[in-house]
Structures are given as C-alpha cells and as structure tokens.
Amino acid sequence: MADDATVRDGVEPDAPSPAPPGHQPPALRDLAERARGYAEAASSANTRKAYATDWKHFAGWCRREGLEALSPDPQVVGLYITACASGAKSVGGRKNAVSTIERRLSALVWAYAQRGQPLDRRDRHIATVLAGIRNSHAAPPRQKEAILPEDLLAMLETCDRGTLRGLRDRAMLLIGFAGGLRRSEITGLDAGRDQTGDGRGWIEVLPGGLLVTLRGKTGWREVEIGRGSSPATCPVAALETWLKFARISRGPLFRRITGGGREPGPLRLNDREVARLVKRAASAAGLRGDLPEKDRPALFSGHSLRAGLASSAEVEERYVQKQLGHASAEMTRRYQRRRDRFRVNLTKAAGL
Predict the structure, then answer these.
(1) Could you tell me if 153 and 120 lie in one domain?
(2) CB of 55 within 8 A of CB of 12?
C-alpha cells in the first residue's frame, strides 16, 4: 500500500508545475505562476471541486483495499468502478448511478494526466467493465418538471416584496426563467464587467432590456432579456428594484442577506441556493398538489426554469437554442416539455 501523504489524506494530486526544475529566475517563476493559473482556468471551479472529491473517494478505497493509488493501473480502476456499481462495503455500501461512475472515471483520467501518467480508459479492464455496468444499471433519464409561466406567477407571489430577500428571490426567479440560465450562471453574475475574480459574467441594463454576458464551457456568449409586458412580471424591473433597495452597484449581483434581513452581505450566493429557492417557492405555491408533499421537492430544480422557458416560448426553435446556449437543436428539444413530438410523422409520410 502506498505510504504517500497524498493518498493517506485522500487529497487530489497537485497539477505539476510547467516550470523547469531547480532554481528559477524571477521571470520564469512569474511565467510558472501564470501557467498554473491558465491550467486552473481550463476547467470550472465546480468541476475541479467534484474531481477532488472523486479522487479522495478513489484514494480512500485504495487505502482500504491495500492497493496503490498513485500509479494508473487499469485493472485497479476496473475493480474500483465495479465496487461503485455493486455498492461494495469498501465504497460505503451504496450503489452509484452510472452517471456518477462515469464522472469518477473522468476525474481519475484528469488527475493522472496532471501527474504526467495517462490512464487509458479504453483499456479492456475499464472499457469492458464500464460497458457492462451501463447495460446492467443504466436507467432512462429523469427530467425535472418545467416551471411554466402560470407556475412562475404563483411562485412569485410567495416572495415577500417587503423584504430584501423577497426582492432578491423574485429577481433570481425571473432572470433565471427569462434568460434560460443555469443556476451557476445566475449566481455567477456581477453588476459590471471585470469586477470580481470569481464572476462568470456581468449585466448591462439597456433601454430595451438586459444584456447578460456569460462565460461558459465553450467560451463567451450573450443573452438578451427583453422587458416584460407588465412591471409585476418584468425580469428587468425586478432586477432594477433589487439593485436599488440593496444598493448594489458593483460586485456579485445576488448575495446573502445579513443584518437580520436588512442588508445584503458581500458574499456571492452559492449556486445550490437557486435549486433551494425553486423547490421552496414551488412547494409554497402548491405546484403538483396532486402528489404527496414529500414527493414534490424532487420534481423541481434550477433546471426547471430553463425547461420552462424552452417549453413555453412561442418562437422559432433556433432562438430558444441560442438563448439556452445549446450547440444542437436536439439538446434544446430535451428541455421542451410541451413540444409536439409527432409534428413530423414519418408513418404518414411513408404512405401508411
């Protein structure tokens, strides 16, 4: 068993510095630090955090089984994903979903690559086992419920307009819906350009609406959110009201409320708060009242806002695809709960 402190503590292995070994002149040290920063920017903070957790999980399993974690061994990795799929005691006794196993495998490939020791996931000890896991355990995707306009209106009524928290929550729900934004995109917004180091974009309030500039997985994109037909449901008006009463002109757009609910704090909201807000407001509004109350929260998430826009916006599909930032129309269609699946009827087209 490895005696390395990295394995003992279950910590993700550090990415190797691209700088040459030995003593370095100041210019090379500066370049090394910049290179490390660029390497970190290649993946999102959430991805790196998830990968670190997965490496810790794998290293802990190796330690308990008396196996070496630091050297990439396809046979060991094959045994590990088998343990995850079968819910072995050595991994906590709980079966992992196929998507979780695939993410854990991606984390191991990434971690070993950072050490200059590539792991070949096409090796038969990994690829064959993973194919069997998919065939045995893969389940159809479970889509979250779409928040439709009538649902959103009911949810907005549960937000107290007399409090800062209520004003913030109204703005988040409306901006998330009208922009078709992911939860990390909502909480990652700043009040202006180049204001924070951890921001994922910024806003510009224009006469015709709101221009949102976002940094995504494939680069920068712009999302245009037009003004609504009524001040009560206008996402831009809701945002302007929040900014006014919260006195926010720079820094994170959506923040925690402090001081007994009287003022916004300096810290950015965690993106999980968007999912909690959607679940809480949906429950308070009585959505899906036909189901037991304990079953309702699992139906809704931050994605429910994106799905709601995709399902209810009566415009050409290409505009919805652009708003959501999807690379393909097929991905957009997965979000459209109301679309006519049989609009193109190949049965009739074939003469039957």
Answers:
(1) no
(2) yes
Asked if 114 and 13 count as a contact pair (C-beta separation under 8 A), the reply is yes
Whether the Cβ atoms of residue 48 and residue 40 lie closer than 8 Å to each other: yes
CB-based contact 62:81 (threshold 8 Å): no
Q: Got the DSSP string for 252-313? A: BSSEEEETTTTEEEEEEPPTHHHHHHHHHHHHHTTTTTTS-GGGSGGG--THHHHHHHHHH-
Provide the 8-state DSSP code for 13: P
Number of domains in the chain: 2
What DSSP letter does each residue of 65-125 carry, written as one string?
HT---SS--HHHHHHHHHHHHHT-GGGTS-PPPHHHHHHHHHHHHHHHHHTT----TTSHH
pLDDT digits (tens, 9 = 90+) for 63-112: 999 999 999 999 999 999 999 999 999 998 999 999 899 999 999 999 99
Decide if 225 is inside a domain.
yes
Same domain, 153 and 236: yes
* Contact between residue 278 and residue 305 where contact means Cβ atoms under 8 Å apart: yes
Strands 209-216 and 219-226: antiparallel
Residue 40's domain spans which residues?
A: 5-137
121 with 155, same domain: the answer is no
